[in-house]
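Hi support team,

I'm opening this ticket because the web form for multi-chain structure prediction keeps timing out on my end. I have pasted the exact lines I submitted so you can reproduce it. The total is 523 residues across three entries, so I didn't expect it to be a heavy job. Is there a limit I'm missing, or should I split the entries? Thanks in advance, R.K.
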Amino acid sequence: MTVRLTTDLRAHLFAHLQSTYPNEGGGFLLGTLAGGEWQIVDHSPVVNSFAEAEQFHRYAMTPLEYAKHEDIADERGLTLLGWYHSHPNSPAVPSAYDLNAAVHGTGVHFLWLIAQVNDGQAVDLRAYQLRPDKTGFDQHPITLA
Amino acid sequence: MPSIKIPTPLRAYTGGNAQVTVTGGTIRAALDDLTTQFPDLKPHLFNNSELRSFVNIFVGDEDIRFLDGLDTPVEAGDALRIIPSIAGGQNVPRRVDQTGLRVGQLATIILLLLAFVLNLWPVVLFVAVAQLLGGLDAAYAPYKLFYQHVVKPRGLAKPNLTVDNPEPHRFAMLVGAGFNFAAVLAILTGAAGLGWALVWVVIALANLNYWLGFCLGCFVYYQLNKLGVPGFTRAPLA
Amino acid sequence: MLERLALALVLLLVGLVAYRAFTAWQLRRASAQHRQIADPLLTDAPNVPTVLYFTTPTCAPCKTTQTPVLNQLKAELGERLHVVRVDAEADPEAAARWGVLTVPTVFVLDANGKPQRVFNGVVGAPALRQALQPLGNAAA
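Hello R.K., no limit was hit. The queue was backed up. Here is the completed structure from your submission:
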């Protein structure tokens, strides 16, 4: 399964996550899922609801933010495909915390995009989906349009 | 009848339905009806009969956690909603304040030298106790208190947090404490020569640590860990 | 009390002398080996002063202090300084050859690869610059 997004959109994601550095930033990914391809057409930054002191290594959204953005996606006829967040100064690889959140929260049908932001510069973006057996994530290739 | 909005990640289990009409006078009853209609949904909502912790149920704009939980009553026209928690983060490795350790080493060196020159075994005893409490990571360990309430607030030294295991350093402190307690015992039982020699061993090791950054106790700890000795559970970090 | 003070000073002095003797021995041994065979760590070294830096993956002061210091010096001096970094755990033979007992250990070699100074434990930028200065080529 491929993940498609425009270089422009990736630049927007990077810009957002660089702006929240050194804290973790995140937001939703909107688009369509068709023919085994995740086509991301838009993103919406969402404020980190964790306590400020924890935000360098933790990110969360309030449920009401989720509701708001899902409604917007539904209105626009788009699917809430998943979400993106940053790992400041650490690899764009899901952590144990990420895995736990996916297993107990968002489940298999949700795309995870993680960006590594080193010293204020976004350097890597990777796409993951929780495996059906929930033991870990599968990485999906990203195609830039 | 009340309806439940299904979040996007779970719509695969409701045949793609974003909105499902349910019956029930409480949240629990409504969810039971939902999972009866769509059994595949159940394991994603419930852990046995408890709601999974990353699953949020809202009635309108209110989280049921702030109402009556699963017993929250449901009215006919209520808009219920299942919302998954979105969270992420990194594994943040444990950090040790290297400056704090150095302050302790310097204190040990100065106090033990003073003790030797002034022939004061109680000072050796104090250092032994300080190292024991530090090694056990007690809240009221003297060096820790000194660092937190005197050194840091006055900017006498800058904290230096590094990714490190605290256990080997604590082990080193306990070794120091052991030598110092033995030294006091020796001094008090008439073997002053031996006692002060043991004190000088600690002074030497503290100097080695402070000036060259070599922690013999840490080294021993990691060797014991490599040998699989029980209790020495932390391996060196990559 | 005075005797004890004197004894303390003597013991501290002994410690200092012992350390100096150890580093002198380290350098002598490294130099002697350098005269006999070119150390494999230095085969690619250009004819500029070299810093030979022993570290290990678990060495915290290496990561937080020593490596940044060397990076800074390298950035300042560019081609006029050659830095060789060795993982003492991955290459214990090299560590044994150079008499490395602790990490970080930093050897400063002249443009011919001859060991001139050794620092056991973290060494700061000023001390390193001072050690490099008389070696020409690397002076600012």
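A quick check on our side: Chain A is about 25% helix and 40% strand. Let us know if the file doesn't open in your viewer.
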